[in-house]
Amino acid sequence: MTVEKREGGERMDGRRFERFFFVTVLLGLLAFALPTIVIDPFFHYHGPLPGVAYELKNERYQNDGIARHFSYDAILTGTSMMANFKTTEVDSLFGVDSVKLSYFGGNYKEIGDALRVALRANPDIRMVLMTTDLSALIQDKDASYYGNAGDAGYVYPRFMIDGDPFTDVYYILNKTIFLEDTLGAVRYTRAGGETTSFDAYSFWEQGQVFGKEAVLATYERPPRSDLAFGMSQEEKELVRGNVRQNVADIALAYPEVTFYVFIPPYSICYWDVQHQNGITQRDIDGMEAEIQELVGIENIRLFAFGDREDIVCDLDNYKDQAHYSAAVNAELLRCMAEGEGLLTEEDYKAYIDRIRELYMGYDYESLYGEDR
How far apart are CA 279 and CA 86, in angstroms? Predict the structure, then answer.
């Protein structure tokens, strides 16, 4: 009888210990998670807290929260080709209150998905300004590297965008986020920092070297191909599907929003590489297919600047084949605000003719001098 009581008591003590252990662990996890939930450095639950200074520096972690929880009526989105836009200039030129959500190395699918999130979350949006990069044009409409390191060199933080509360554990119980971002916000605030402006967010020009010498140093010129290729029908269908799903359909779903869409002007060195590879005509065909998908949509204002020789042929504007300076960004904004470079159903073919003449007839050898 005594033994039975002892065994029963041991079982009771074991259950108490299990409950104590469970509660202790739960409280410990809550204590660890609570600062990240409250400060919320990636704005997953709420916008910025008064009195806390936030550094905007992690596009793919912070953009979704910015889209959902900030106050704005215009959005700038796209790749690094729009990252040097200044929202203060946009606001002044277009009379809006904008945020910048850039995705370095992003493709049409990623940017389109993010744009849909923003438009669903914020019914006040009345303007979108976005890039459509040639480098990601010939892709399947659903192509993405979500969850893969891929060419971008990162693993995509799907737990920030999947809408599943259970995967929030990867955010609120993440040691790196806790130490570097949650406590980082505390340290940054105590040091007298201020929340990063959208002018500065993703702005990459500082410390970059521009000019012909810098551009030519970023690549090795390929040998001249004996063949020249236009765009195949299969590639054209990829372009059309990509643009339709990730740009056109979004604009059609939000007819009250004006979409300023522009094709970034890559440098003449980009076109030299395409010329050497025999695919200049293919790229021009791709742009024409994109334009045809977008140009007739009433709430899309489509712009292209590939015929601006003062931009594309002046390598002082570039740090590599594609990336231009913030001064070019400012000029593109001015043009779009004033309607310069606007393509219409009536004149887009003339634009295609101009860039075809420029890029297929350019004296590319002059870029290198007599020794190349």
Answer: 34
The pLDDT of residue 20: 60
Angle, helices 59-69/108-121, rounded to nearest 10 degrees? 30
Crossing angle for the helix pair 348-361 and 280-294, to the nearest 10 degrees: 170
Q: Could you give the angle at which helices 268-277 and 280-294 cross, rounded to 10 degrees?
A: 120
In angstroms, rounded to a whole number, what is the distance separating the alpha carbons of residues 63 and 367?
39
The yes-or-no verdict on residue 152 having pLDDT over 50 is: no
Provide the β-strand partners of residue 77: 101, 130
342 — phi, psi (to 5°)? Answer: -70, 135
Instruction: Pick the closest to residue 337 from 134, 83, 89, 79 (CA basis).
Output: 89
> What are 112-135's pLDDT values in tens digits?
999 999 999 999 999 999 999 999
User: In sequence order, which residues have a C-beta less than 8 Å from that of residue 84 and are 6 or more positions away?
Assistant: 203, 204, 205, 325, 326, 329
Residue 50: pLDDT over 90: yes
> Which residue's structure tokens are 């990509």?
242
Residue type, 144: S
The span from the CA of 235 to the CA of 139, in Å, is: 8
Which whole-number Å values give the CA distances from 73 to 91, 94, 217, 297, in the listed order? 10, 11, 41, 21
Residue 118 near residue 69, CB atoms below 8 Å = no
Which of helix, strand or coil describes residue 217? coil
Least confident of 65-69, 227-231, 340-344: 227-231
Top-confidence residue, 143 or 192: 192
